[in-house]
Each structure stands twice: as C-alpha cells, then as structure tokens.
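Researcher: Next sequence.
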Amino acid sequence: MHTHDPALTDLVLDHLRTLLRDGPRLNQPGQGDKLDRALAGAITADGSDPADVLRLYGEHLAPTAIGVDSPRFLSFVPSAPTEAARLFDMIVSASSVQGVSWLLAAGPIAAENQVLRLLADLAGLPEQAGGCFVSGGSAGNLSALVTARETARRTRGTDPGGPVRIAVCDQAHSSIANTLRIIGAEPLLVPAHDDRLTGPRLRAALEADPHPENVIAVVATAGTTNTGIVDDLDTVAGTARALGLWLHVDGAYGGAGLLAPSVRARYRGIEHADSVVIDPHKWLYAPLDCAALLYREPALAKAAHSQHASYLDVLQDDGPDVWNPSDYAHHLSRRARGLPLWFSLAVHGTRAYTAAVESALSLARATAGLVRDAPHLQLLREPDLSVVLFRRTGWTAQDYHRWSDRLLAGQTAFVAPTRHRGETVARLAFLNPATTLDTVREVLDTTA
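Model: Next structure:
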C-alpha cells in the first residue's frame, strides 16, 4: 500500500492530462439515488483495480461537481486557478508537507511568507505585519476576531466571562455572524448607508448605545459577497482608531482588487486595519482551499492562538527567523496551502495578476452597460467591483429560479438568483479571465 506503483502513477497522470486538455466543464447537480447505486461496493476488504475506481470517479462522480472554474460559472464567488497553481498543488499534496511549524517546513513557510508580505504591502500594512494561510474566509474571520477578543481582554482588563460585542453591518458575510456565535460575542448592528458601512454610521450607533464600552471591534468588508460593495474603509478606520476598536477587514472576495489600479482608491483606509482576510482561492487564482490572514501586529495573534503542550515544546523557538503558522490561527496541523499561489505568482508575475483582475472589473462594467441598454432589464446599482445585480421587469421569484434552472440544464451558465433588499433578483459574479462578453450576451438574451 505504501510502495511506489508506476502503473498507478501513470494512470493518474493520464487522467490529469485529460483534465487539463479538456478544460473545466460546468456539469450538472447529482441525484442521491444514482450516486448511491454508483458507489455501491466501491470500498471492499481487498480493494479494487485503480483503473476501475478512477473510471467510477470520472464517469459518475466528477460530472456531478459543478465546475466553479468554468468560464460559465457566474454564481456565488467563482474560482479559476491558474494551470501553474493547479499543478503545483499536486506537488504540494504529493510531498506531504506538514506546514505547522518552521522546524518541519522552513522552506515552504518562507515561500508562503513571501506571498503574505506581498499582500501586506499591497494593503499598506507595516513591515512587521504577517500571518498565515488558512482554509478560507470563515477560518480567517474566526481567527482574527478571536485575536481581537483576547487582545481586548488583556488591554482593557475585562472579565473573561463578561459581555463582548463587535460592530457589524447587515451586509457582512454570513461567517461573521457564525463567528460571533462561536466566540460568545454579540453583534452591534450598524445601519448601512446605501448598503455600505461608514464611519459616521458606526460612531452614531456607538453614541446611541447604552453600553458602548462592551464593543471591542468593528468588521468592515472590502467587497461584499452579494453586491461587491467596498465599505467606506477610510472613515470606518478613522472612527475605529478614535474609539480604540480593533478593525478587521474581510476582503475574502474583494481583497484582490488591491492589485487593480482602476479600483485601488476604493480601499483607502485598509492600511489601518488590525487584521485582514483575502482569499486567493477566489480572485487570486489559487486552488481551494486557500485564504491569507494578515495581522498588523502578529504578536497579538500569537498570544491568542499559540498552543502549549509538552510534545510541542520543541516547536517553541523564539529565534528571529522562526515563524510557526500554527501560532496565528485556530489550527495546528495544516497543509502548506499558500505554495500553489507562490508558484503561480513566481511563474507569471504580478503584472499578469493585475491584468486578470482588471479583466473581471472591465467585464462587470461592460455587463452593466448591456443591462442598462436592455429595455426589459434594470441595473440595480453600478458595480463597485465585479458583481452585477439586475432586475428583469415583471419576473417573480419563481421566474428567476426557473430561468436559472434552464441555463444550467442547457449548460449555458450557472446563474443563481439572490435577494437584494428583500427582492429576488439576478446576480452575475465575474472573476474568471476566460469569461467573455459574448457569454454574458448569451445569458442576457435568455431573459428577453
């Protein structure tokens, strides 16, 4: 079982070559009963021929995975890893890198840190900023707000069991509400201004609250998932600094826009953040699962997250070069998930990434123009980034969902409706550089 099998290696590599040659497919959702029949007897006491198992996967399982990397996947937040990143992810997996500590993986961690430094510089964070890669924005938001809570308890001398609240806008990602439940914090809901969190609204909410002393942090968003809006980071940062609040910026989707000169001004104020999350598996073209978590002062995260046990003593080296990713998030064991991004950046260069991000922004603006020109469609707002929301005149919620089903059944596109201010509407999300305006026209034509 642990010996090298050249035939198995060739079989898997042939399958990989076919995947890369054919490119991503949109695919269809699976049906539980059919999958149960296909999987029946797959795991046995004595095993099976690898070719048969791979055939089972290729013929019955893979076709039921909606291709988030397809140029026709326009829902949620797509993912479109570069070929360089995909291939290097295979090397990372085959190498069994245990990315928990400098002792076990100094070279891979140094490469990950090079990428984190690049992202910190793009955000304007100070030289000492750093962090680690985690599985996604949810893990990053959780780890950052745990750090905020623990820092407040130490610096404010508050009771560990006392009330903790964090200011949020109703447009914050769903993982923020989940994080607050997990860490025992309550939200202070700040009313948005045109779906955007602003410093004046934050200050007004705190001044109207009977116990503002319990509010220890504020979460701003650099690219909301539903509408692609960047909060007024500059005024939020000013209010946070004035009132002594930890500022966490959730840029899981939109943080990659820092690479794009056409929208860089929207992020003014992010340089004052205490923590930032950016998901490379979204708009930085890395494979799932990869999120960058950055801290202005990593020592605060280390104080909150570092784990201590006799079997971990060997890892606790405070030398100037030592960097243990396990000290900066809620995890211990971890794969070196930042390496595929590092390889792709090193191969392609940052200019190629800027061009790819700008292409998505340009496509969103062009799509907004098409929607404005269509008499039966109504653009709901100009896109901040790469999300376009529009209404089809006369449609009900059922109409949008039937339209979505038809598009997927015909493999035209995957376009999941959403709700905006209580109304079901259409939403297109652009990240993939291979998505064309012709594809968008094809989708919009089906609404006539």
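Model: The chain has a mean pLDDT of 96. Residues 181 and 187 are 9 Å apart (CA to CA).
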